[in-house]
Amino acid sequence: MTLARTISINLLGLKGEPIEIEVDVSNGLPAYSLLGLPDATLSESRDRIRAAILNSGRNWPNRKVTVSLSPAWLPKSGSAFDLPIALSILTASGQLKESDLSKAFFLGELSLEGNLRPVRGVLPTLIAARDRGVKRVIVPKENFQEAGLLKDLEVLAFSKLSHVINFLESGVRAENPTLIDAPKEVAKHDMSEVAGHIENKVALEIAAAGGHNLLMIGAPGSGKTMLAERFSTILPPLDEDEAIEVSGIHSIAGTLKDRNVLSTEPPFIAPHHSTTIPALVGGGSNLIKPGACSLAHRGVLFIDEAPECDSGLLDALRQPMESGSITISRSALTASFPARFILLLAANPCPCGRFAGRGRGCQCTSLQVRRYLAKLSGPLLDRVDIRLRVENPTRVELSTSSTERSETIRNRVIRARAIAAERFAQEPFRLNSQIPPSFLREKYRPSKDGMALLHALLDKEELSARGFHRTIRLSWSIADMIGAIVPGKAEVERALLLRSGIPGE
Amino acid sequence: MAKNPNAAKLGEVGEEFVARSLTTKGMRVLDRNWRIKEGEIDLVVVDREGTIIFVEVKTRSSISHGDPLESINNEKAFRIQRLALAWLATHQRLGSRYRIDVAGILVARSGEFLMDYREGIL
């Protein structure tokens, strides 16, 4: 046997492409060539694999070793190919049987010592493998928990190459790790910790129910960040498929350490305002990594000090906000990641931050104040349904302690979303914020008097066409919260208030 | 070439061993340690069909520095080929069929020789 072949998966975004690994050991001078556009990590595999094989008590074939990864035109990256290549080399050099190699799907990086090290993107890789009929997989021990999420796969985990070889040869498993149940998640934050802000909490509740984006403007220290950090605690928990999808994205980004693989908590991602566009939407030349907006998929993307962001940065979010996914193109390849998030923006009212309340102590000129918020572009604000003025809580509010817990609010949000989901059962969308304009004018219009109010404002030119649509969307979420079948005049008025938190528009 | 007299001795022993084993296979030695400024060819033999074979012999007494054959990289292989052409030119044999082989010799403690012979490396 001088030729061995096995299958692996190369990830493009969340999508896995099957890669055929072929290893040929022929009678030339000792050499190793790796074909098929490997990136730097993959090219270095030679030295890792060689040392790992020798240190696992096997022989390195001192002949010409050719490793081919096909399709040849597709650039490949990552260290997850180490294990399948090593086992193929052992097979091609007669140290393993061909039937051994077909016993499982292999994934893992090798250390020089011959240990198996964890790799990124295990979940999406294994999903792709499963869809191609793989039944049994062998993964590094550290990835066991993640791989174990896929119930219909037989997952075996090992920490050493020699243990994998032993298992393939004799069926003896030197290691038999068991899945650990998800630890009971204790929320780090709770809405009840925020004193006062009764109105703002209701606005957040409405945003959570309808999936509306939200902008908060207020003085430093007034509680914008506190409120935002607790927003994800009032969102409904993810269901199992969603949790796997979110964990898959985090697995590719390598941020799964900060997140339990089984977590059903919606992610809360808060990039700093100095972040770059590739970090925000995703990028990278060989291995395209998901950006903050994909990490926030099915959760919250919070950008504090939004007007401080470089121009264009926030506008890069417009496309994913519209389509719910982001497609990143590089010369060699194109990758797509889902990116359906609720955007929370926070801003100071002016550069010095004191233009709040009675505006005492603000040093900024009126022009500066106007320009500051104008940095948030119109098209972006167009997608933000709720604008809040966050004022410092009063003395009385700070001293009252009895406020609602996140759980109570979350249950109301779940109920409101269920009402909306029932209403939209036949539609391609699920949340009020996703209702297309044509539907708003026909199928999902508010009650007669509510419409009359909006029409009057349109006539007086106090409401733009897009403001009109957004108000209706918001009024649906308010109606769902109070259990009204159709938004009436009161809900429309409430919606008008919520979106006019900021003068201008 | 080798500075260390022991190493030089080792190389010589290895070349002698290869030459003998090739002769028993019916080949005839044409030249040994043919040296010009660019380098040296260890062994030139001709087989029964008249193919001229240039043999590079690598001898080591342990594999602690890796397999003997591993020291022959592409650059070295091409240098051997240039030397081979030079040999053919010098001996008015340009145009004859030729081949470049490599022999890796491992001398065990017991004095036993282990030969790893690779034909036609280019």
Describe the fold and architecture.
The complex is a heterodimer of chains A (about 500) and B (about 120). Chain A is an alpha/beta fold and about 500 residues long. Chain A folds into three domains: about 5-170, Ribosomal Protein S5, domain 2 (2-Layer Sandwich), CATH 3.30.230.10; about 190-425, Rossmann fold (3-Layer(aba) Sandwich), CATH 3.40.50.300; about 435-505, Helicase, Ruva Protein, domain 3. Chain A is built from 21 helices and 18 strands. In chain A, strand 8 (about 135-140), helix 6 and strand 9 (about 155-160) form a beta-alpha-beta unit. Chain A is elongated, with a radius of gyration of 27 Å. Chain A starts with a strand and ends in a 6-residue tail after the last helix. Chain B is of the alpha+beta class and about 120 residues long. Chain B has one domain (about 5-120): Trna Endonuclease, Chain: A, domain 1, CATH 3.40.1350.10. Chain B has helices at about 5-25, 75-90, and strands at about 30-35, 40-45, 50-60, 100-105, 115-120. Chain B has a five-stranded mixed β-sheet with strand order 1-2-3-4-5, sandwiched between helices. Classes of the chains: A alpha/beta (about 500), B alpha+beta (about 120). The interface of A and B includes residues 27, 29 and 31 of A.
Keywords:
heterodimer, A: about 500 residues, alpha/beta, Ribosomal Protein S5, domain 2, Rossmann fold, Helicase, Ruva Protein, domain 3, 3 domains, 5-stranded parallel sheet, 4-stranded mixed sheet, 21 helices, B: about 120 residues, alpha+beta, Trna Endonuclease, Chain: A, domain 1, 5-stranded mixed sheet, 2 helices, about 35% strand
- Write down the Rg of chain B: 14 Å
Order of helices and strands of chain B: HEEEHEE
Mean pLDDT of chain B: 88
* CATH-assigned homologous superfamily of the largest domain in chain A: P-loop containing nucleotide triphosphate hydrolases
Number of strands of chain B: 5
Shape of chain B: globular
Which class do the helix and strand fractions of chain A yield?
Answer: alpha/beta
What is the CATH class name of the largest domain in chain A?
Answer: Alpha Beta
Proportion of β residues of chain B?
25-35%
